[in-house]
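Subject: sequence -> structure tokens, single chain

Hey, anyone have a minute? Need the predicted structure for the following. Not urgent.
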Amino acid sequence: MEYLEDMVVGTKRGFGQYHVTREEVIAFAAKYDPQPFHLSDEAAAKTHFGRLSASGWHSCAMAMAMIVEDLKAHEHAGLGSPGVDELRWLKPVYPGDTLRLENELVEVTPSRSRPDMGSFRSRVTMFNQHDEPVMRFTSIALVRRRP
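Reply:
Had a minute. Here:
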């Protein structure tokens, strides 16, 4: 179990693998982001995307799926998250892409008001199979301190 005291600023890790399918891109878009370039090859061809692309919000959901899978393998005393900062979609994500994440711990802060917990910030970058960064954000998470 990893607690706040175990976290070291500067630690970097790579993890995850997520294969993006055409069916999933269309299903997500149809339900949550029904813009034409996420739903139709013809509509996407008329945009700067050039072809069907995943919603940025779908990219966030795929990142979360990889993060949760990694948490199952590397248990820590997490208490949820108050949000993310600096979310950027850097390149389109396309059906057929295989995604992975890199994480760098950039800040660890004990809580002043809750001595049993603290927070940390991580810079998370999503890469495609060509090692091109496609999304980046700063994750903020809450975590227990060692009992």
